[in-house]
Design goal:
Elements (H helix, E strand, L loop, with lengths): L4 H6 L11 H16 L7 H9 L6 E3 L1 H9 L6 E6 L5 E5 L1 H7 L9 E5 L4 E5 L6 E5 L5
Antiparallel strand pairs: 1-6, 2-3, 2-4, 4-5, 5-6
């Protein structure tokens, strides 16, 4: 299952990745993300969630409504990538304000990951218990 393309278009998001090159570019970024955060070539929620466990001392863990409220108040800047565990696409979103527009509309049945373009800050929205975890990649300290 993927994030609905219409949802992204309706949110007035401008991708800096040209549409005709998007498939190639998204694969390249997916490879970069996977090589930095997991040790295999498949998105694996178990591995991702274990990784996020070690962010607890660097970031925050929130649950339910508190989670959505917390993420919407984060003072982040710049461009971000948003992708799902099972989806093949990675969307580049320009500006944190556009990410904040999308978050409340995301399907609750998906595990969604958001990363900044440098792959340092990661945020995870899980479909199981609506946990959001944010923090810095401990491997870049």
């Amino acid at each position: 299952m993927k994030i609905d393309d219409k949802l992204l278009k309706d949110s007035l998001i401008e991708s800096k990745i040209p549409a005709n090159d998007f498939g190639i570019v998204s694969k390249e970024y997916k490879t970069k993300i996977l090589s930095k955060y997991v040790d295999n070539t498949q998105l694996n929620s178990g591995r991702f969630l274990r990784y996020f466990e070690c962010l607890k001392d660097l970031g925050k863990v929130y649950y339910g409504v508190e989670a959505i409220r917390a993420i919407l108040e984060l003072p982040l800047e710049g461009d971000f990538f948003i992708f799902t565990e099972k989806g093949d696409d990675i969307y580049k979103i320009s500006g944190w304000n556009n990410i904040k527009l999308i978050i409340p509309q995301l399907p609750s049945s998906l595990d969604v990951y958001i990363t900044d373009v440098n792959l340092d800050a990661m945020i995870c929205l899980t479909s199981e218990d609506n946990v959001i975890i944010s923090g810095k990649n401990p491997f870049t300290r």
